[in-house]
User: Fold this.
Amino acid sequence: MTSPRPGQLQVGWQYAAAYPDPGPPPRRPTPPDAERLSPDWVAAQRREESRINRPLKAAFAVAVVLGLVLTALGAAGSLGALLTGLAVTCCALVAAVSGYALGQGERALRSRMADERARIGRAREAQESLLFAWQAEHAAQVKDWQARQLAYEQQKRWYAVRLPEGVHRMDIAGGTIAGWSAMLTTAAASQLPAGGEITVLDLTGSAAALDLAGFARAAGTDPLVWVLPGDLPRLDLDRGLSRDARAELLSAVVGAADEPGADRNPPFDHAILERVIDVLGGRPAIAGVAAGLRALAGDPGDDVAAGLITAAQAARLTALAGRGTDGRAVLERAWVLESRLRKLAPAGTGPVPLPRSKLRIVALDQRVGTVSSRVLGTYLAAALTHLLPATPPGTPWEHTLFVLGADKLRGDTLDRLGDTCERTATGLVLAYRNIPEPVRSQRGRGNAVTAFMRLADAEDARVASEQLGAGHRFVLAQLTATIGGSVADTSDGTYASTAAEAGPSAASPPAGGLSRGGGRPLLTEPAGSAAGDEPSPGEPSPGEPRISESEPVSTAIRTSTGWGLATAKAMADGDTLPRARPRSREFPADPDELRQLPASAMIVSYAAPGGRQLVLADANPGIGGLSAATRLTLEEFRARPGAETADPAGFGDLGDGGAPPPDTPAPPPARPAPNLGPPPRRLDWRRGRP
Assistant:
């Protein structure tokens, strides 16, 4: 089972039966009742013949008796010789004529019986020929049924669900931590082996990417993990930004802490931050900007002593505040800005050397408060908005950015991040636990795919049901319902920060923050800087482990993730679960059902040439290890050469000189022809029915 190329992000598996159940085998033909000469008919013919011949028999008997009497009388001399001879001659003639007529009637009766026997013989031969034709047709039907039954039993049951081409973003509404964990691992299992890269911003505080990190390590790719705020000193995302970009970034971070509906004046904040950065000069760290804001507010002493700013800079900032009403407004806002930027003050103060990795995870600690989580999340998202354009765009979705808990970010922050990802061909997946009103109108906007997982909020479920349409019904596979209920606590645990453990012995020089490849933030920089030394697209950098084969991928999922372990256990417990019985239940897309979806169930909605398509997918990565799963989509499987030929299983000649198309499932092991037993005995109709 091969992996898709980068840009073909897989988000789950679709259960479907490409070949329907052929039903029971054809019934064996039943021989018709054989025709034979009926004794009743023979008796009736004889009775009729006897009735017709009754006068003749009487005439014959009378003639014989009378002749004998006359002969006796003549011999006794009672009659004259002439008269006796004449009378006897007349009786003989009558007896002869009647006897001849009786003989003719018997010969006619035998002729009719012979004709009837001949007709019955011809009818038997016709029945025998018809039965043999039925048996030949039945043998052909049985052979065809066996082929369809073999195709039905050995067909793939799970097909890949990938995002359609041309899509720039995927919005996931609802879901649990376990469900997001499944979706992340499934996506990584398709992207990483194909040479793609993944960046995860986990704003949930619940270690939703823990399974993903375990899978990557088991498969040979060591992820880079930052856990905030503890790893803020080792995460430097604003290094290299211009004055305007840095001021815009910090202004967005400050605005993240405002309550919805609060009065904001972003240009005012931007102007203050811009002037502070101008006074500090160069590219000051966030801690230096916070110190400059304190100096602007009139309290520079401790910061000058700590070396965060100089006395000259403090004097210039103090003079910059001005006097009067405008001055007081600047001082008050400077304190507000400082109080919020203080949370980010440690950022970039202690960068460490980090190895290269195709997988990067930046997560919030579970102890982070609500305001801090919004500030830190906005800092990450806004920084990426400025960092992503730093390198040329690559293949669409070759680099995929997952934002888990996107409902903690403001709508304008998400808009800018989405626009930047679209311009740089970076795939973007936004996952919302809840859908606040400002985000509800933006979800699915533009060329985006919308997905729905379990929705805890009743209002969100109602809105989702209206968007899906009440007329749609989905069939939930038993495997989805069974495994989904056994991994509710898959993501319990905490991240192990790799940035905190990094030291001088790391394999590469300091990356300067969250970097992709080596050197440039987030986007891959080829390992060879000299001309002609760049690796080919999709190749790993030197010294970087890479997942290369599908079997190690499946093994890593089965042995290192909660989903893989649960699926493997189900396979060991019973033979029915791995194949997933045809259906568990059918359900409509109503709010109650959307609130009870299994953790890994996902309804994917996207626009297609034939209209909007809805697919019920299972994000369980453990399905990839089943023999009944294929990386082909259902449409690709049905459209492949040979799918509609006389070989219903699709294991024969697939065209192209007999070579199967890429990613065609391997044919099953050759099976001997089924033993149908000896052929039916040829019936001998001349001996009657056996």
